[in-house]
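Reader question, answered in our methods column.
A reader sent in the components of a multi-part assembly and asked whether the whole thing could be modeled at once rather than chain by chain. We filled in our standard form and ran it. Here is what they sent:
COMPLEX SIZE: two components
ENTRIES:
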Amino acid sequence: KQEVTQIPAALSVPEGENLVLNCSFTDSAIYNLQWFRQDPGKGLTSLLLIQSSQREQTSGRLNASLDKSSGRSTLYIAASQPGDSATYLCAVRESGSRLTFGEGTQLTVNP
Amino acid sequence: KAGVTQTPRYLIKTRGQQVTLSCSPISGHRSVSWYQQTPGQGLQFLFEYFSETQRNKGNFPGRFSGRQFSNSRSEMNVSTLELGDSALYLCASSPTRTSGGGETQYFGPGTRLLVL
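And here is the structure of the entire assembly that came back:
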């Protein structure tokens, strides 16, 4: 059974800092890994998707890497801003459209 | 293109009642999945529908059921509600089920269900 773990559970940083969020998964037989952002009480916004054959994806200040063999992914956020404050979730896609999620990292960026 | 829509957005029910939630996927998307999000259990997969057929099911009791219509809209039903069913219910859509892993799943805003 696939298990996804995210570290740390919570993170508080000053504005402008670069930061790394970690995600690990137990079964490397995945189609892809997605990083999502969730604001309080809201749905999920997809940030980046990395296919199993890829090593990294970039979008603006975000960079996500994937090491499938070791079951790890990282989300790098450059020059953090208060608007980045949210919960960040990683999810792996296995069979069909089923996603298995981690518990999330709650990020607070202080002005 | 309009995003994934879910109705209603908020719902209050009492124990023992039943509830039906609706999800309209992005136009052209044929796969719809449902998830339950609670503070204690996080996001858990309920089921997936594609071409009006349930393709995958999570570890939830039979009180949770769903269906998909020919226009890809989906409904989920929870019968005999329990206090523990209070949660944010999210649906997600994607064009197909499998395509080599390159498809993003898009989530709706969710329906927040409170069971009293």
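What stands out: The radius of gyration of chain A is 13 Å. The mean pLDDT of chain A is 94.
Send us your own complexes using the same form.
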